[in-house]
Structure formats: C-alpha cells, structure tokens
Amino acid sequence: MSDQTGPSPTVPYWHLWRDAEGVSHQRQCALTAFELKGVGDAAPQWNNRHERCESTVVVTVQPVGWVGEWHENPAPQWIVVLSGRWWIESMDGTRVEQGAGEFSFGEDQGCRSVDGRKGHRSGTVGDQPAVLMTVQLHIPPVLRPCHKA
C-alpha cells in the first residue's frame, strides 16, 4: 500500500494570460488544491478538481518546422504535450519550451496588437512533430495569472 500521509502535491504548469492593457505574458504556476479521495472503490488518490463547464477536446499534430505566427488561443484551454516538443512566445518576449507530459493553460484572448504582435507565437522544436491535446473551456478568460489552483 502506498504512503498516503505525505503532503498534498504541487503540480507545475505555465499560464499564458493577458493583462488589463491587452499584453500577453507567461508565468509558472502550480496546481495546489488537491484532495485525497478515492474514485469509486479505488484507494484514495490526490485529485485537483476544476469547476464543471462545457468543453471541447482537440488533438493537434504540428509538423516538424511548424510555426504558428501571432494568434490568440481560440478559448481558455489546457494544452497537454503528448509527444514531441513545442515552444510558446508571449508578447512580453517570454519563450517557454515544453515536452511530453508538460502542460500549460492558454488564456490570451482579447489581446491588442503591439508592433504586429497579438497573443502569442508557437512552433515545433526538433525533428519530430509535436502532438498536443487541448481541452477548450467554454468560459470567459480571467485577467490574472495563476488563478487555476
């Protein structure tokens, strides 16, 4: 039997968000609101449950060398890298690379154009396609970083 008496876990993720001036930024955040609870008859596990809402799941395959020039996420969305690597650059110049098992929350809707930049750029890294799964949440964006505990 596993040790269930340890501290609640902390799971890091990157948050791409926009400020009140319409400029996108990225900040390292962490999921911390875990509850030790069983699912059905299974032993207790750490769960971080988010508010229920309508959502759309999309799996994308970005080819080697793919670059998505300046654009916004279509909706607030969790982006999970399934395989390969990709990068995300926000309007403030922050560039983050992620690989398999890493994830982010894209919430840069409503940015304004600054010097031809609006939202973020993204692209593949290396000689393999990047396979991503997105869970698009049909909710309005929130204008502050790290609000998804």
Automatic annotation (TrEMBL):
Q: What is the lineage of its organism?
A: Bacteria, Pseudomonadati, Pseudomonadota, Alphaproteobacteria, Acetobacterales
Q: What is the name of this protein? A: Cupin domain-containing protein
Q: Which SUPFAM superfamilies match?
A: RmlC-like cupins (SSF51182)
What organism does this protein naturally occur in? Muricoccus nepalensis
Residues annotated as region Disordered? 107-126
* InterPro entries tied to this protein: RmlC-like_jellyroll, RmlC_Cupin_sf
